[in-house]
Every structure is written in C-alpha cells, then in structure tokens.
TrEMBL record, chain A:
InterPro entries, sorted: AAA+_ATPase, ABC_transporter-like_ATP-bd, ABC_transporter-like_CS, ABC_transpr_LolD-like, P-loop_NTPase
Protein name per Swiss-Prot or TrEMBL: ATP-binding cassette domain-containing protein
Gene Ontology MF terms: ATP binding; ATP hydrolysis activity; transmembrane transporter activity
The ABC transporter domain, residue ranges: 1-210
GO CC annotation: plasma membrane
PANTHER family: IMPORT ATP-BINDING PROTEIN
UniProt keywords, alphabetically: ATP-binding, Nucleotide-binding
TrEMBL record, chain B:
Occurrences of domain ABC3 transporter permease C-terminal (ranges): 273-393
Compartments where found: Cell membrane
Protein name: ABC transporter permease
UniProt membrane topology term: Multi-pass membrane protein
Species this protein is from: Chitinophaga agrisoli
GO CC entries: plasma membrane
Domain of life: Bacteria
Transmembrane segments annotated in the record for this chain: 270-291, 312-336, 367-386
Pfam families recorded: FtsX (PF02687)
Record flagged with keyword Membrane: yes
C-alpha cells in the first residue's frame, strides 16, 4: 500500500535521510524517534505536503512524488487521511459539517450511515451538533480520527495523535484508531515519540541518530 | 461546501462582519441616495423649464423669480402691470406668452391664475371634466385632486399666501370643473384658474382692507409672464431691453437653473466625497477583517488543503467572503437609500412641489455603482485570497 525508497529532504544545510518504509493494507507501522529527528517532515513527505529532494513515495501504485501540485491535492484528498497532534477544525462549522467536509473536498460523498457508524464506534455521536471549540481534548482527537477515517482512505497518517492525551485516553484513542483502520483495511502509519504507544504496536521503525 | 464555509465564517465572527457590513451599507446607501436625488432633481428641473425661454416679472432676485413662477417653490418677487407687460407679450419676436397671477393657495397647493395655454404648455390632459371658462372655475392637478379628495363640482376656498396659516378668502369658493391626468411635472401640484378669478378675488378683497392694487382695467396686475421666442436672437436682446427700458426684470430659466444646480452641485460634490471616503473606510475594513481572519485561520486553511482542497478553492473562499459582504452591503445600502427617500419624500413634495418618479427603481447609474462597489470588495478580498493561495501548508501544519 505504502512504500518509500531513498527519501531525502534538506532543511538548509541539514540533510535528513529516511530509511525505506513499507506498510501494507490493514497493517500498522509505528515510526518513532526523538524530537527533531524529522518525524513530522517524514509524515509531510508521505502526505505529499512536502516534496523530497530525492527518493519516491508510492501509494496504491501511484508515485505521488511525481504528481503536479493540483493533482497532489486531489490525490491526497482521496487517498490519505491525516490526524494531527493538535486537533484543528473549521471553527465556524459544527462537528457534523467538519466530518462531512473531508468527503466533500475529496469528492467521495460520505453517507449519513457511515457517519453514524464511525461516530458511534468512537463514542462521539452525541457531539455532532456541537462546535469543535466546545469539545474536550480527548473528544476533539476522536473527532479528528473520525474525520480522517470517513472518506475511507487507503492510507491513514497520524502525527503524534496521542501526545496531548492522558494515559487513559491515550490507549483508548490508539486502540480505536488501529481498530477502525483495520476494519477499513487501511494502512496506518503513526509517527510518535510517545513511549506509551510502543507497548501497543509491534511493527515499528526508529529514525534519527542511532 | 466552500460556499457554506465562507458564509459560516462571516457569521462565526459576527461583530467583525457587522462593522464592515454597516460601513458598507452607509457608504453605498449614501452614494445611491446622492445619485438618485441628483438624477431626480436634474430631471425635474429640466422638465419644468422646457420651452420657457424667459420669464418677465417684477424686479428682485432672478433666481427667486424663476423659482416662484416656474417651480412654484418660492414667494413671487412682486407684481407687474399687465398693460406694461402686454407690450412685450405682443412683440413679433414672441411666439408664446403666458401670463401668471400668483398669490393664493389651497392646502399648500398653489393657485395659478393663467390661461389654458399654461396647461397646454405643460402637456396637461384632462382626466375628467372641462377647462375653466368663467371666473372662479378651476382645473386641478392630479396630486391636488387626490390629496384633497376633489371631484368635479367640489368647492373650496383659496387662502392668501402659500403658508399653512394665511388669510382664507371666505365667501368666494372656487368650483372644480376639471381634473388633469398626471403630467409628471409641476402641473400635478397646481390649481389652475383664469387670471380673472385672481383679480376678482382680490378686487373684493381690496374692498375689505385694500392692501392689494386696485382692480381698474388700466392698472390690472399680474405676477409674471412666461415667454417663448421665435428666434434665438430675441433670447439675447430681450433681457437687455427689458432690464434697461422698463422697471420690470427678465430672467432666463436656463441660466438660473444652472446657477442653482451648480450651488446644489457643490453641496452634492462634498457629500459625494464623504460618501467615497466612507466607501474607502468600508472596503479597508473588509480588507483588514479578511487579513486578520486569514492569520487566525492559517491552520484551518492548511487543513482544508491537506484534506484535498485546491489552492484555487482557498482563494475563492476568501473572495466569496468579500463577495457576500459586498452583496449584503449593496442590498442594505439600496434599502437604506430608499428608506431615507421614503421618509423625506412627503416633505419634499409639500415644500418644494417636488415629486419623485419611480424612485424605488434602481437606475443605470446605481447599477454601475453597485457593480463598482462589488468589484472593490472583491479587490479587497484578492490580496488575502492570494496569501491563502500561496500558503505553505507543511510549514503551517508543523508549527502549531
């Protein structure tokens, strides 16, 4: 599903080299590393938000590193769901519209049943009429997971999804994420320095020095 | 979806949007009002003056003479002797001469002693009844009839002067013999009768207190004469002859109206400058509002991109917000201008015999103004829009 070879990215004089990655459909890949090791950069490279100096990213038989910018946006919308460390939403829209937004932008309409199923599974179905700013951190993170999962993308990227959560929420959110991704047969890549997650996921790669 | 986000964004920060909207409403409302008043005033002034080359009247301010005899919006300058005026009325260079005897009114509407030629000149058509034949018979304009519920055969007393509290000429009622159809000019607001009626009323009046000129045939007086010449030569010579050889005055409506419009024009010019300043203020408030909300929403915009939104969609998101605000401001500005006009309209009609036609309809100039306003609003949204277009999503998302 996801495959990378020889990815390199240069920040000024600093050159980041990343090991080759592979993550199949329905699998979870945990990428760990200390802060500053380039974890977020790697995730942005995978998502096509950044272009590498060399190497390529292949998602579902498409080499995304060769796509023009406009097509990259479209491809990303349809194939990638991204979960951020700090959940962010369109503040002016209710949770329901925020959830539908991803599908609309990706031109993959989301059915009300799908919204129902996922929000029930994540325990946020009672929050649909709320504005995102009124939700707690744990709730917000769950909404952003639902948002990433809803268009049923083949690849889900998570950037420190549990960093702002307490121990209880951390395990719950991580397990929900893995469970839902598995149900959709999506490849799930989690980038984190959160040691709590190492206990949950076995398949991991360490980047940075050492 | 972008549509919905743009709309919701404006509502999400209501105070900020409200400020821009109010400013825009005031600016576009004021400019629309000025355009409207100017167009209507120009119209009205030109229509009423059409075909009158010169007005012959008593000495005084020429502007006052024109205002009182052509627009019926001021007190007359005084009286002239019919005998003396006749010399000029029968001059071979004169094509048309209409005598006017003013001084009385009915419920704020002026009673004009004249000849049927006056009605003819302003294109009056009888809606019902007939022209006046003998003394004390009147033909009333459409608005006069409507406001006072006058019918053929109605009788009313005239009042001395044009004010609300004048001396009522009791015991000498006028009889309505005809009602005019709307002529869309000053005629609608007048009561027209024969010059004789005015003489008769004041002849009787004189017996009471004698403050008017005696009504002997040789010294009969009128207020003014509206003249139309056969050649433009007369236009040049007549005013000089009259002002030099007689103790009457000749005023040229075209000159006086131009003077009046240029006086009004400088006032309108000032108001227009204020209007455009307001507009500039409104547009910069939209600009800064969008710029500020852009800074606050960088992450939201990056998020939209990461969910598959195109750059163009972000650009159009900001342009749409500007467009929505612009549209709302233009519409409410239009309503504001009409509301203000609706409020001042009855006063204008009463005081200046100034009726506006189709004033609720937007004119071409207003359409142009609306379009221009809208484009300026869009332009104000362009720079924030371009910044959104060029947003570096990776950087924005990485630095929370």
């Amino acid at each position: 599903m996801l495959q990378t070879t020889g990815l390199e990215y240069q920040y000024g004089k600093r050159k980041l080299r990343f090991p080759a990655l592979y993550c199949g459909a329905g699998e979870v890949l945990l990428i760990t590393g200390s802060s500053g090791a380039g974890k977020t950069t790697l995730l942005h490279l995978l998502a096509g938000l950044l272009l590498p100096q060399s190497g390529e990213v292949r998602i579902a038989d498409t080499v995304t590193t060769r796509l023009p910018a406009a097509e990259m946006d479209r491809f990303r919308g349809a194939h990638t769901g991204i979960i951020y460390q700090q959940p962010h939403f369109i503040a002016a829209l209710q949770v329901r519209d925020n959830l539908l937004l991803a599908g609309r932008l990706a031109r993959k309409p989301v059915t009300p049943e799908a919204v129902n199923r996922i929000t029930h599974a994540l325990g946020i179905h009672h929050l649909l009429q709320q504005y995102p700013a009124r939700l707690s951190q744990g709730e917000q993170q769950r909404v952003s997971i639902a948002r990433a999962l809803l268009p049923a993308p083949p690849l889900i990227l998570a950037d420190e999804p549990t960093a702002s959560l307490d121990d209880h929420n951390c395990t719950a959110v991580a397990e929900l994420l893995a469970e839902q991704a598995g149900e959709q047969q999506a490849a799930l890549v989690i980038v984190t320095h959160d040691s709590r997650l190492k206990e949950v996921f076995a398949n991991r790669i360490h980047i940075g020095e050492g | 979806m972008i549509f919905k986000i743009a709309f919701k964004n404006l509502l999400h920060r209501p105070l900020r949007s409200l400020t821009s909207w109010l400013l825009l409403t005031c600016a576009s409302g004021m400019l629309a009002l000025l355009l409207l008043v100017q167009a209507q005033a120009g119209h009205q002034f030109e229509d009423n003056v059409a075909g009158i080359d010169m007005v012959l009247g008593a000495k005084g301010s020429p502007l006052q003479l024109i205002l009182s005899t052509v627009y019926h919006a001021d007190a007359p300058t005084g009286n002239i002797r019919l005998q003396e005026a006749q010399r000029w009325m029968q001059h071979p260079m004169v094509r048309m001469a209409i005598p006017l005897a003013l001084g009385d009114s009915y419920n704020g509407f002026r009673i004009v002693g004249s000849t049927p030629a006056y009605i003819l000149h302003y294109g009056g058509q009888m809606a019902s009844g007939r022209l006046f034949k003998s003394s004390m018979e009147v033909v009333v304009g459409s608005i006069v009839a409507q406001r006072n519920h006058l019918h053929i055969g109605s009788r009313f007393n005239g009042m001395h002067g044009l004010g609300a509290a004048g001396h009522v000429h009791e015991g000498q009622p006028y009889t309505v013999t005809g009602i005019l159809s709307p002529a869309d000019n000053v005629l609608d607001q007048l009561v027209i009768t024969a010059v004789n009626s005015v003489w008769d009323i004041h002849a009787h009046h004189d017996d009471d207190d004698g403050d008017e000129a005696p009504a002997h045939d040789t010294s009969r007086q009128i207020t003014a004469v509206l003249l139309q010449f056969r050649s433009p030569m007369a236009q040049l010579q007549f005013p000089r002859w009259i002002n030099e050889q007689t103790n009457m005055q000749a005023a040229v409506p075209a000159i006086e109206v131009n003077r009046l419009l240029s006086l009004m024009g400088s006032g309108i010019q000032l108001l227009r400058i204020i209007g455009w300043l307001l507009m500039a203020l409104a547009v910069s408030s939209i600009f800064f509002m969008l710029l500020q909300s852009l800074e606050e929403r960088r992450y939201e915009l990056a998020l939209l991109r990461s969910m598959g939104a195109q750059r163009v969609q972000l650009l159009s998101l900001l342009l749409l917000e500007a467009a929505f605000l612009g549209l709302a401001g233009i519409i409410s500005g239009y309503l504001l201008s009409r509301g203000i006009l609706g409020i001042i309209q009855p006063g204008l009609a009463q005081q200046f015999h100034y009726t506006m036609r189709h004033w609720w309809q937007p004119g071409y100039a207003e359409g142009g103004l609306a379009l221009l306003t809208w484009f300026i609003c869009l332009a104000a949204g362009l720079l924030p829009g371009i910044r959104a277009f060029r947003l570096n999503i990776s950087k924005t998302l990485a630095h929370v």
